[in-house]
Design a protein that fits this description.
Blueprint: H1 10-25, H2 30-37, H3 41-54, E1 74-75, E2 101-108, E3 114-119, H4 125-138
Helix pairs in contact: 1-2, 1-3, 2-3
Length: about 150
């Protein structure tokens, strides 16, 4: 059974990375190390590449969580709110009184053409069918292979 490294503390994660690098220096493959440490071989490969790029910095605990700007939804809110006021006055940051959000479906052709469909609220069958009709119309008689995955949760 594989270990979910996200659920481990930063110290435990650093220890796993340190062990993986030590085993890799000892000549073990990513697959062997993954089996020993109960993590995926691609995870081991990522750790090794980071170690070669950054060295011992890989073992230092880092900031956890999503990076600024890595939002999953389109909203009217800015990523960073900043205010300014002259010395001695309280800065005031104006914000929108009402929040709203939009969702988006997209498709990419094998030729690199991108199609977007932006909608309000939750995805439902009616919206999906509407998107598919538009996608088929833009395909101009060519085949369309539709691949759907689980919709990400905010």
């Amino acid at each position: 059974m594989r270990t979910d490294a996200i659920k481990l503390s930063q110290k435990e994660q650093a220890l796993l990375r340190r062990q993986a690098v030590r085993l890799r220096k000892g000549g073990k493959s990513n697959i062997e190390i993954g089996q020993i440490l109960s993590v995926h071989a691609k995870t081991v490969g990522g750790w090794w590449a980071a170690y070669r790029r950054e060295g011992a910095k890989l073992f230092e605990p880092g900031k956890r969580g999503r990076r600024v700007g890595a939002q999953r939804r389109l909203t009217a809110e800015p990523n960073v709110a900043r205010g300014y006021a002259p010395r001695g006055h309280t800065p005031v940051v104006k914000q929108m009184a009402k929040q709203f959000s939009l969702s988006m479906m997209s498709a990419v052709t094998n030729r690199g053409t991108v199609r977007f469909f932006i909608y309000k609220g939750a995805l439902n069958v009616k919206l999906l069918v509407q998107f598919c009709h538009r996608l088929i119309a833009s395909a101009q008689g060519r085949k369309v292979y539709l691949i759907l995955d689980e919709q990400s949760k905010p």
